[in-house]
Design goal:
The protein is mainly beta. The chain is built from 1 helix and 10 strands. The strands form 2 sheets. A 7-stranded mixed beta sheet has the order 6-7-8-9-4-3-10. The chain has a 3-stranded antiparallel beta sheet with strand order 1-2-5, with no helix packed on it. It is globular. The structure holds zinc ion (2 copies). One zinc ion binds next to loops. The site of one zinc ion has 9 residues, from loops.
């Protein structure tokens, strides 16, 4: 499936081919901090299937719990997270679905790092809802 990405300010534009069955939610502590929210939703794109059309992301290298360094790409102007990948030789780019135009069709199939999941995220369906703020 073809997806089209654009950061909030529009400086970064990119496209990729992804398998919509590979979308996952990550509840790890790093994803909570780096997104500024409760969890991260991502879909992998093979390196050959990911193309940046405009701009160059800023890279922050974090060290994963395993000790592996991971490149975290984001827009230097607006801060939108774009992807994570291997630092030296990325085989995959793990795209953050929030900046993808097709995000509504990218329904997660699994959740990982559930040991640090915030307990309330599993109960959102019962919460009061409003069309706008
Ligand atoms: Zn931006
Ligand atoms: Zn994570």
């Amino acid at each position: 499936m073809k997806v089209h990405g654009r950061c909030h300010c529009g400086e970064l534009r990119y496209e990729a081919d992804v398998d919509p069955a590979q979308v996952s939610i990550c509840h790890c502590r790093d994803c909570q901090i780096l997104t500024g929210t409760a969890y991260r939703v991502s879909v992998p794109a093979k390196a050959a299937d990911f193309h940046i059309l405009n701009g160059a992301p800023k890279i922050y290298v974090k060290t994963a719990e395993s000790g592996t360094p991971r490149a975290q790409a984001f827009c230097a102007t607006c801060g939108t997270p774009i992807y994570a990948s291997d630092v030296e030789h990325p085989a995959f780019y793990n795209l953050r679905i929030g900046a993808l135009a097709e995000r509504a069709e990218l329904k997660p199939a699994r959740q990982i790092w559930c040991r640090s999941a915030l307990a309330w995220v599993q109960g959102l369906s019962g919460m009061e809802m409003h069309e706008k703020s």
